[in-house]
Amino acid sequence: RALTIEPHHSLFLVKGAAESVYTPPAFTERRVLVGFSQSVCKALDYPKFGPAKEIAKPESYALTDKKFSGFIRYETRFTGKAQLLEITDAYEGVEVFVNGQSAGIQVVPPFRYDLRDLTKEGENTLAIEVATTLEREHGKTKNAAPTGITGEVVLYI
Q1: In what order do the strands lie in the sheet with 84-87?
Q2: Would the pTM count as exceeding 0.90?
Q3: How many CB atoms lie under 10 A from the CB of residue 61?
Q4: Of the four, 44, 57, 113, 121, which is 20 to 30 A from 85 by CA?
Q5: Distance (Å, whole) CA 146 – CA 57
Q6: What is the pLDDT of residues 47-96, one digit of tens each?
Q7: What mean pLDDT is predicted for residues 33-39?
């Protein structure tokens, strides 16, 4: 049996008989999500986000405010049961919420979340919160990394 370990991801090996066998999701459709609302808040204000604005697709928030540090929240809706969510690139830590439940926190790309137990037939809500570093708040913007989601947000059905 082959074992695949993705770079920078944790893996726990447990010796003994398994209670159940993990079955990876089977995909029938790859859907790039667009049409998000975006809101931000400083770390001390979390989770009180400011007013949301509509954006076509996520891009580095440093293009909007190069001195911002805190949390950036992206929200959208989708229909149908989903298997997996992948955010191809983001800076720094990412937490995903589906229908109000956390799918987990990850800190290195690729950011992949198993959504099989969180989605439902019909409409689902997706919120992605990205925490940034404090370097910008202290005036270090010259060679600062991008902020927020900088890649695609892909849903696998």
Answers
A1: 30-32, 153-156, 84-87, 111-114
A2: no
A3: 25
A4: 44
A5: 15
A6: 999 999 999 889 999 889 888 989 999 999 999 999 999 999 999 899 99
A7: 96
Name every residue whose Cβ is closer than 8 Å to that of residue 46 and which is 6 or more positions away in sequence. Answer: 70, 71
Amino acid at 45: D
Nearest partner of 128 among 56, 80, 77, judged by Cα: 77
Handedness of CA 134, 138, 144, 146 (dihedral sign): positive
Left if phi > 0, otherwise alpha if psi is -120 to 50, otherwise beta: which for 143? alpha
Q: Which of 94, 120, 98, 117 minimizes the C-alpha distance to 106?
A: 94
CB 157 within 8 A of CB 83: yes
DSSP state letter for 132? P
Neighbours of 129 (CB within 10 A): 22
Residue matched to tokens 């198993």: 114
* CA–CA distance, 152 with 83 (Å, rounded to integer): 17
CA–CA distance from 30 to each of 72, 80, 110, 156 (Å)? 25, 13, 16, 5
